[in-house]
Specification:
With 273 residues, this protein is mainly beta. The protein has 2 helices and 19 strands.
Length: 273
């Protein structure tokens, strides 16, 4: 049997329930994960009680937290994911204060060419003659606060308007509960690797948005499973589907979370599709 995960009423933030967004449940000594490439705090995407996956006993207390880096540098997006496993005394942990900012021009003002000249000096901005200028125009990415503030003052001084954006966004404002719907995937005891025909799912699902599939480590399929340092293979915990983050310009791409059930060592693999 497979298990599909749909939106539902959001659970209380303090409950170790299946949901996306909000604040992660972490222990007091567990820091908010940072990207190993750019060292910026990562975006918290989802939490999954391991017991819901049917891979462990129903009294297993481990909670799987999935983080992603949506930061873009001069070299491109980091595209890094992270898995944190918690158990025991956990509580919602506030996101760390942003240490870097993007500078976006929101209006060119009465002297647009002067503003664009300033923009080209501040960041890597290339606009062809006669081409439309996209608004907002990001001219500086992931700059320390003092540099970002200097850039905003320079843009204001040239007659334009600009805003500072925390880079990357720390929270998904909306969070959703987890409506679990079993379906017959034709593979006894295993989850499906693809979205099942909706006709197999109960009519009670209605118009809810599907978030992903729990489990799905089906033998014979190309998978992201890696060999843990303990020598055991990992298992697929959840397959997240691509979605536009609510109330945000962040696009959440497909992702697969893997975990070694013995060592609780995990990895989140992302793709741009």
């Amino acid at each position: 049997m497979g298990i599909a995960w749909f939106d539902d009423d959001p659970p209380p933030m303090e409950v170790a329930a299946l949901r996306t967004g909000g604040l992660p449940l972490l222990t007091d000594d567990e820091p908010w994960p940072s990207c190993p490439q750019c060292e910026v705090p990562m975006l918290f995407r989802a939490q999954v009680p391991l017991a819901l996956t049917s891979l462990v006993a129903c009294d297993d207390e481990r909670l799987i937290l999935l983080f992603e880096c949506h930061h873009t540098t001069e070299r491109g997006p980091c595209d890094v994911g992270s898995v944190v496993v918690t158990r025991g005394a956990v509580a919602p942990k506030p996101a760390p204060s942003a240490t870097t900012f993007d500078v976006a021009i929101t209006a060119l003002g009465p002297r647009p060419f002067g503003v664009l000249e300033i923009a080209s000096q501040i960041g890597d901005v290339e606009l062809r003659a006669g081409s439309a200028v996209p608004m907002p125009l990001v001219v500086l990415r992931a700059a320390p606060s003092f540099l970002a503030e200097e850039a905003v003052r320079a843009i204001f001084g040239s007659g334009g308007d600009a805003v500072l954006r925390a880079s990357p966004p720390m929270l998904l404002r909306d969070h959703h509960g987890g409506l679990l719907v079993p379906f017959d995937d034709g593979r006894r005891g295993l989850g499906a690797t693809t979205l099942p025909p909706l006709g197999q799912l109960t009519e009670a699902v209605g118009q809810r948005t599907i978030r992903g599939l729990l489990g799905g480590a089906t033998p014979g399929y190309r998978d992201h499973a890696f060999a843990c340092t303990c020598g055991r293979p990992t298992r697929t915990i959840v397959r997240l589907l691509a979605q536009q983050a609510p109330l945000s310009d962040v696009r959440l791409g497909p992702a697969v979370a893997q975990l070694c059930l013995q060592c609780s060592k995990g990895a989140l693999y992302r793709s741009a599709g």
